[in-house]
């Protein structure tokens, strides 16, 4: 039996939701990961440090007994965000970054930024306080094809932004294209990218060929095969600019299986198994630890985890559905067999702080 023991990974991009759903989904992440960067796109969004700290308490309150899972909080950047709020993020140990959603780009992004360049004075404050900017990198211009929105965002917005703010730490979240991977590779230090398991495993045929499969619909949308291959190459390259971010994004079954289905794939139930499958497919399972457990912590200047976890190569079946509050959640690859299995984490250390 092939076993793989590695430093406990962290999830540098996670949606946990709130209320009844939160309790049912956080257990999946807490079982595998030490920490997670928690996305702020709740309804209403998490726009202040006060909101973020209250949300963090709600997360901690529903963690399983003895869990050491540490939620790292982010704030949602809006047209109204103030310089004072940026300073508060810097001064608060539990808050780590601002998330930029271009208004209208994705789920719960209505309160997002309407014109990025208008926020340059605020980005200057973020740069000065060394508060990272996490970017949903897609234009919302209806004239731009949905498959090109990441590439165009990089050209129109990200490239000039990085020129203008040479010291701002930036994460281009969930990259999905060859252009995205190449852009990150060519960028200065202090610029990184997360990559999801589903974008490493699937191209757009999974979504659209032989029938429309809403559980493969996420934003940024799955791309062509050469893009998937470029992402796999980047993730397995050992380059510290690339790190794990599941973008696990639960939506109730009715919201996904609908005439206008929501964007988001729920992958937290089998996150490491999915990444291990992708890395093994590239003959690069030995690179998983650096991508999943080391690079992200280094980017965020946090200590690497000291616990170890073990995966083994043995098949198991993903359940057809799981509970999410009062609703059903269809986990990614429901009913299918995966070849890797998360078997254990060392007993939890006390939660820091
Ligand atoms: O597919 C996605 N789902 N992409 C996002 O950017 C947001 C996320 C969500 O919150 O559901
Ligand atoms: Zn996300």
Please characterize this protein's 3D structure.
There is one protein chain. This protein has one domain (9-307): TIM Barrel (Alpha-Beta Barrel), CATH 3.20.20. It has an eight-stranded parallel beta sheet. A three-stranded antiparallel beta sheet has the order 1-10-13, with helices on one face. It has a two-stranded antiparallel ribbon with strand order 11-12. The mean pLDDT is 96. The chain has helices at 19-32, 49-61, 83-91, 120-129, 149-164, 178-186, 197-201, 205-208, 225-235, 253-256, 271-281, 288-299, and strands at residues 3-7, 11-14, 35-38, 70-76, 95-100, 133-135, 170-172, 191-195, 242-244, 308-317, 322-324, 327-329, 337-345. It is 33% helix and 18% strand. Helix 3 (83-91) runs parallel beside helix 4 (120-129) and helix 6 (178-186) runs parallel beside helix 9. With 353 residues, it is α/β, with parallel strands linked by helices.
Task: Give a short synopsis of this structure.
By secondary structure, the chain is α/β, with parallel strands linked by helices.
Number of strands: 13
CA distance, first residue to last residue:
38 Å
What is the CATH class?
Alpha Beta
- Topology as a string of helices (H) and strands (E): EEHEHEHEHEHEHEHHHEHHHEEEE
Counting DSSP H or I runs of 4 or more residues, the number of helices is: 12
Helix/strand-derived category reads alpha/beta
**Shape, principal axes of CA atoms:** globular
Strand order of the largest sheet: 2-3-4-5-6-7-8-9
Bound molecules: (4S)-2,6-dioxohexahydropyrimidine-4-carboxylic acid, zinc ion
What is the CA-atom radius of gyration, in angstroms?
19 Å
- Average residue-wise pLDDT: 96
CATH architecture descriptor: Alpha-Beta Barrel
């Amino acid at each position: 039996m092939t076993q793989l023991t590695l430093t406990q990974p962290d999830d540098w991009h996670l949606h946990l939701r709130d209320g009844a759903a939160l309790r049912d989904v956080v257990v999946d992440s807490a079982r595998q990961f030490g920490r997670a960067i928690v996305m702020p796109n709740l309804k209403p969004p998490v726009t202040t440090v006060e909101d973020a700290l209250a949300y963090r308490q709600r997360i901690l309150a529903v963690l399983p007994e003895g869990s050491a899972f540490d939620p790292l909080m982010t704030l949602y950047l809006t047209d109204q965000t103030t310089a004072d709020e940026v300073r508060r993020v810097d001064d608060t140990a539990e808050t780590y970054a601002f998330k930029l959603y271009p208004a209208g780009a994705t789920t719960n992004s209505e309160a997002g930024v309407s014109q990025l360049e208008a926020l340059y004075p605020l980005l200057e404050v973020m740069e000065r306080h060394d508060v990272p900017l996490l970017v949903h990198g897609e234009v919302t211009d209806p004239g731009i094809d949905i498959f090109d929105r990441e590439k165009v965002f990089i050209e129109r917005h990200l490239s000039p932004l990085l020129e203008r703010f040479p010291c701002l730490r930036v994460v281009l979240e969930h990259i999905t294209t060859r252009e995205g991977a190449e852009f990150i590779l060519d960028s200065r230090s202090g610029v990184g990218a997360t990559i999801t398991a589903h974008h490493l495993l699937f191209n757009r045929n999974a979504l659209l060929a032989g029938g429309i499969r809403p559980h493969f619909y996420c934003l940024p949308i799955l791309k062509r095969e050469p893009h998937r291959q470029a992402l796999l190459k980047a993730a397995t390259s050992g380059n510290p600019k690339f790190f794990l971010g599941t973008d696990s994004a639960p939506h109730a079954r009715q919201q996904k299986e609908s005439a206008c289905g929501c964007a988001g794939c729920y992958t937290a139930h089998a996150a490491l198994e999915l990444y291990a499958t992708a890395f093994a497919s590239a003959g690069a399972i030995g690179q998983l630890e650096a991508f999943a457990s080391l690079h992200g912590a280094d980017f965020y200047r946090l200590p690497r985890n000291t616990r170890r976890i073990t995966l083994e190569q043995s098949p198991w079946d993903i359940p057809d559905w799981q509970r999410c509050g009062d609703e059903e959640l269809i986990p990614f690859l429901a009913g299918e067999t995966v070849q890797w299995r998360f078997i254990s984490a060392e007993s939890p250390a006390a939660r820091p702080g």
